[in-house]
Amino acid sequence: MFEVINLNAGYEFRDKFVHAVRNVSFKVEKNDFFGIAGESGCGKSTLVLAALRLLKKPGKIMSGKILVDGKDLLTLNDSEMKELRWKKIALVTQSSMNSLNPVIKIKDQMSDVLIKNHGYSKADAHELVQKNLELVGITADRMDSYPHQLSGGLRQRVVIAMALLMSPSVIFMDEPTTALDVVVQRSILQQIEELRKQKAFSAVFITHDISLLFEMATKIAIMYGGEFVEIGEAHSVYSNPMHPYTKGLLEALPSISKNLEKYKSIPGRPIDLSLNIAGCPFRERCSYAFEKCEVEKPELKFVNGRWTSCHLY
Ligand code: SF4
């Protein structure tokens, strides 16, 4: 349904190049909830923007393929791309306040998508907008509100309702609940899960909060240094993490029952993506590193039902 093959993308500056997405491949199938996790600065958001062909200058896609129902997005012209947006692929961004226009009423900015891109009449567009807002628990009397008149949670629901307008097959969600308090976060996540079942769309969910993904995702990819270092079924990655970075993320997870002294954080900082990385990108933070890790880059290999890139396997 949606497949990324060997995608390379980054940011070109006068004196340096930040290679933020390095040879990433993944496939999203019908009803998948595909989670992508990793620390801030590992390339997750760049991957989303590149995969949806939304990366703006100085961002650049260098190579790869992005297939939607077999069509490569990188070969489509603007009007072919416009045809696919909202109908096949949609995006829920990190901050609803930045996605919504502050001086246009909710109903008008949602209708705009339908009228300008897909030829709806104003009345039909308003009717569909109302239906979609009701789906996310927003009543018709809020349609005339401006974004600032809604709480952060309601604004995020508006953005989700907007992404659902044309019933796309795949919705990318880039940290959609990060700025919200935990109670609102939970209720929005539950709503996303209900909507996914009801409207049968697949989700690609990006977060630095790995515990969220283990609850919700069917498949999970762990990203480090612009690459996927482990990909597998969410429950099996959780119960048996293979890559030392995944193990580190799991050991740092807080739990009500765990003794506080048992928490371990991963030492050091994420690697600088403007560097030409020789050997394993995680080696300076890895307690399992050995000589080979210094000189040879581990490739993703399929081991024990899982893709992982580590010389230990
Ligand atoms: Fe650690 Fe080496 Fe595996 Fe990299 S390849 S994760 S440094 S053991």
Q: What does this entry show, briefly?
A:
By secondary structure, this protein is α/β, with parallel strands linked by helices. It has 11 helices and 12 strands.
Summarize the structure in words:
There is one protein chain. This protein has helices at residues 44-51, 78-84, 96-99, 106-118, 122-135, 152-163, 182-199, 210-216, 234-239, 244-251, 291-295, and strands at residues 2-12, 17-28, 33-37, 59-68, 71-72, 89-92, 170-174, 202-207, 219-224, 227-233, 301-303, 306-308. Strands 6-7-8-3-9-10-12-11 form an eight-stranded mixed beta sheet, sandwiched between helices. Strands 2-1-4-5 form a four-stranded antiparallel beta sheet. It is of the alpha/beta class and 313 residues long. The two termini are 30 Å apart. Strand 7, helix 7 and strand 8 (202-207) form a beta-alpha-beta unit. Helix 4 crosses helix 5 (122-135) and helix 5 (122-135) packs across helix 6. The longest helix is centred in the middle third of the chain and has 18 residues, at 182-199. The mean pLDDT is 91. The protein binds iron/sulfur cluster.
Question: How are the SSEs placed, and which strands pair?
Answer:
Elements: E1 2-12, E2 17-28, E3 33-37, H1 44-51, E4 59-68, E5 71-72, H2 78-84, E6 89-92, H3 96-99, H4 106-118, H5 122-135, H6 152-163, E7 170-174, H7 182-199, E8 202-207, H8 210-216, E9 219-224, E10 227-233, H9 234-239, H10 244-251, H11 291-295, E11 301-303, E12 306-308
Parallel strand pairs: 3-8, 3-9, 6-7, 7-8
Antiparallel strand pairs: 1-2, 1-4, 4-5, 9-10, 10-12, 11-12
Bound molecules: iron/sulfur cluster (SF4).
